[in-house]
Amino acid sequence: MTKLVQPIPLYRSLLRAASSFSAYNFRSYALRRTKDAFRANRELFGEARDKALQQGANDLKMMKRQAAISQMFQTDRLVVEGGLEGKDKGGRARVKDQGWD
Asked: Could you tell me which of 71, 79, 72 has the C-alpha nearest to residue 27?
């Protein structure tokens, strides 16, 4: 017996899980893919809707596992993300000190 999946909590959970990726490219892809999938399946009803929601629940489980792995192997932030490694207000890019002693 499968548990009934509600679309709005599933959508919010998928967006939350997608935003937990440490890598910018994976994070933006997961957000874009989630939004596109829900837009494409907006008009589904009945059995097709239930099947799509179940697939979304499976995708959520997979995304949580992948995000946990992503957190283990964090990299420096990209320039497009801003933050400490991003652009300075003067237009100069800051360079991270490597700290080789």
From this structure: 71
- Gap between the Cα atoms of 79 and 89, Å rounded: 13
Residues 44, 38: contact at Cβ < 8 Å? no
CA dist 31 and 15 (Å) reads 6
Asked if 66 contacts 47 with a C-beta cutoff of 8 angstroms, the reply is no
Reduced 3-state DSSP string for the chain: CCCCCCHHHHHHHHHHHHCCCCCHHHHHHHHHHHHHHHHHCCCCCHHHHHHHHHHHHHHHHHHHHHHHHHHHCCCCCCHHHCHHHCECCCCCECCCCCCCC
Single pTM value for the model: 0.73
Tens of pLDDT, residue by residue over 50-84, are: 999 999 999 999 999 999 998 888 778 788 887 65
Alpha-carbon span 62 to 51, nearest angstrom: 17
